[in-house]
Amino acid sequence: MHSNVRALAFALLVAVAARAEDSDPELAPASYQRVRPAAEGAQWPRARGGHAMAYDSKRQVAVLIDGYAFDQGGERAPYSEHWEWDGARWSFHGGGLGGRYGHGLVYDAGRDQLVAFGGAYSAYQIYGDTWVRGEDAMWVERKLETAPSPRVGHAMVYAPSRGVTYVLGGWTEGQKEKKRSRKAASRFSREFWQWDGNAWTKLKNPPKRLVGRSGHAMAWDPRSEQLLVYGGRGQEGLLSDLWTWDGKTWTRVLKDLDYDDARELTGKRPWRMENAWLAFQPTEQRLLLGPGSQGQGESPWAWELDGKRTRRLDSPYPNPFDRCEQSAVPFKGRLLLFGGSRFRLRGNERTYTVLDELWTLGAAAEADPAKQEGK
Question: What gap in Å lies between CA 156 and CA 153, rounded to an integer?
């Protein structure tokens, strides 16, 4: 009960800060443009959350795979759909991966392949399969003797300079880890894996302070040649720590906050959240952290991360925040944002909504072929 009261108090503090007139000169520049269909009746993906997106740099299209909506009973109903965005219109390319959410998807530029791993159809059906889509435009499941165990909500990132894909964490089927004799097995994994185009290799687990988690954000920073990991949900609840990995050493850059930090740091650095996005924007050479779920609602802000310094993005309304499970990929200099979900609690009534909004984000406004609105 006490933790719920503190969470509600923090949500109120965030709401007040978000609505206050903000003249902070330290806000990072940002421009948001909502993209609408260029013509009436044009193809457009259905509203969804839990989907995965990747940017195919050779074909210069953003690829969207699967995701879910809510059925009449409030349960997740996965889609099996493959969509592509070329900068002007969406096109439908048939079935995806059988219907799943919380999966990983990357474009392996060195091999010109899309690679997908894991996800779930439901809480009782979690996948540990690896799929590859190459020049023949067909998804092929790779049957492998060694692979990460089935999981959902893991993070998956391709590192271009190393030519490999990394997978960290996730919500697993609850296998008991080694050296866990008395404690109940955690379903939040700390496992760290590498895919080289042919095989999975299990890497050394991160330090114990980087606890097992799911719904965390992860990205590759080409400036520092490092992997960055933020937040998520662990055994004890939501997280707000930021970690880097340089290929050898894990370093905690930002500590995990507690509610005593809320009043001083609200609006000054990211808070505890899950199902946010983390993406590198090439044009401005900056790493951006998007909004996620904070338990009693979604974050109203996005952030620029630069070492230990964090700057909140300027966020004039309308903007693509106040949601979670949104996908973000670099696209022709800007970030392309699609979909997401919202949770609301009014009294004892819970409501869930999924979105079909498409936005672009950059430091300055930019005209695109499709119809756009915003700052």
Answer: 10
Three-state secondary structure call for residue 275: coil
- The reply to whether 357 falls in a domain is yes
Q: How far apart are CA 338 and CA 45, in angstroms?
A: 10
Within a domain: 369: yes
| DSSP state at residue 366 | -
Two tokens, residue 331: 């696209």
Write the CATH number for 146. Answer: 2.120.10.80
6 backbone dihedrals φ, ψ, rounded to 5°? -65, -40
Cα 137 from Cα 63, distance rounded (Å): 12
DSSP string, 20-86: S----TTPBP-EEEEEE-SSTT---PPPBBS-EEEEETTTTEEEEE--EEE-TTS-EEE---EEEE-
State in Å, rounded, how far the first CA of the chain is from the last one.
Answer: 42
If one counts the domains in the chain, the total is: 1
Q: Identify whether 251 is part of a domain.
A: yes
The verdict on residue 254 lying in a domain is: yes
Residue holding tokens 């349960």? Answer: 75
Backbone angles phi, psi at 350, to 5 degrees: -105, 135
What is the rounded CA–CA span in Å between residue 65 and residue 19?
35
Domain that includes residue 12, residue range: 2-47+142-340+353-374
Alpha helices, DSSP H only, in 230-357? 262-265
Q: Global pTM?
A: 0.88
Nearest to 55 by CA among 30, 94, 87: 87
| Rounded CA separation 210/111 (Å) | 31
Per-residue pLDDT tens over the stretch 86-128: 999 999 999 999 999 999 999 999 999 999 999 999 989 999 9
